[in-house]
Amino acid sequence: MTEKSELFIALEQIEKDKKIKKEDILMVVENALVSAYKKHVGRNVNVEARVDHKTGEMTANVVKVVVKDVLNPLLEICVHDAKKLGQCTDIGSEVRMPLNTQDFSRIAAQTAKQVIIQKIRESERDSLFYEMKEKVGQIINGVVYSKVNKSLIIDLGKTEAILPVSEQVYKEKFNIGQHIKTVIIRVEKKFKTSGIVLSRANTMLVKRLFELEVPEIYEKVVEIVDIVRESGMRTKVSVLSHNPKVDPVGACVGIRGARIKPIIDELNGERVDLISFSLDSTKYIKGALSPAKITSVTIISQEDKKAEVLVSDDMLSLAIGKNGHNVRLAAKLTGWHIDVKSDEQSKKKNNEEVEKIS
């Protein structure tokens, strides 16, 4: 087996494994040949090199221009000397003088090797970038590799990614070596550091978890209309069924909570409320305030989207939620300004209005 065939076998293997075209690598080798020869004879010499794309044979030539009077012997040749070479002697034509590539092919090979390694790395980086770019919004599994200024570096196998503090859930703590499930929210091209940004706090994580656990959502029988979330505290998911025989909330909960439980476990106990989407604003607001039981919903202004909700005294704290997060999420989900009042507060307000009139 000749050396040139070994070269081509190696190039074909690189082309297959690294997805780099053989022609591109051959161009690198040609440039390396030129660079290697110029190191021997000087930068001002006009050298051309070529690797036969079929046989792999390397050839190199010094190129000189035929002139009447030679002023620069590195770039020019006289008519008499050109005749000796048996080439065209017309003034201005180019003469090619073959070089013995064995004299400097070792240096050229070393140079080409370094450039090829760099090109392979660039190709792999580009390939990985486009692969990860297509996975934005998808769930990915990884292992916590290290911590840098409270941000987590996640080992994804092929590469590393960052889970910044802003995308972490404040209640969650992960240790080095621990497996973690995140969603890819952004992929950027960076030379030295990973440009993959992950999240545990994004609503997309919740959506993907439901798609994994609920076949009806994956099959688009049940649609997730909207998700609002205060990560670590509560999430509200609005769902709609495109099949009248399928209850969207029931499909997401599963028998005895078999489908919702793995999702809550993955979210480390975060409360998840499922609400049936409705075009009826009163009904939708009532459902959005789940798990509180609502006595009544009164539309104060359709134009300004203001509504007043009445609950029993024992339901007031549940309807509002800790630090107001339940009513705040309900308002965000429905797009309505919601004022929650208890029966006692409502009676007191009514009595005050009656006293003012009288």
Task: Describe, in short, the structure shown.
The chain has 358 residues and is of the alpha+beta class. The protein is built from twelve helices and 15 strands.
What does this structure look like?
Helix 2 runs antiparallel to helix 4 and helix 9 (about 280-290) runs antiparallel to helix 11 (about 325-335). Strand 13 (about 295-300) and strand 14 form a beta hairpin. The chain is an alpha+beta fold and about 350 residues long. The chain has helices spanning about 5-20, 20-40, 80-85, 105-135, 205-215, 215-220, 250-255, 260-265, 280-290, 315-320, 325-335, 345-355; strands spanning about 45-50, 60-65, 75-80, 95-100, 140-150, 150-155, 160-165, 180-185, 195-200, 220-230, 235-240, 270-275, 295-300, 305-310, 335-340. It folds into four domains: about 5-120, 2-Layer Sandwich (N Utilization Substance Protein A, Chain:P, domain 4), CATH 3.30.1480.10; about 140-200, OB fold (Dihydrolipoamide Acetyltransferase, E2P) (Beta Barrel), CATH 2.40.50.140; about 200-275, GMP Synthetase, Chain A, domain 3 (2-Layer Sandwich); about 290-358, 2-Layer Sandwich (GMP Synthetase, Chain A, domain 3). The strands form four sheets. Strands 7-6-5-8-9 form a five-stranded antiparallel sheet. Helix content is about 40%, strand content about 25%. The radius of gyration is 36 Å and the shape is rod-shaped. Mean pLDDT is about 85; it is low at about 1-5.
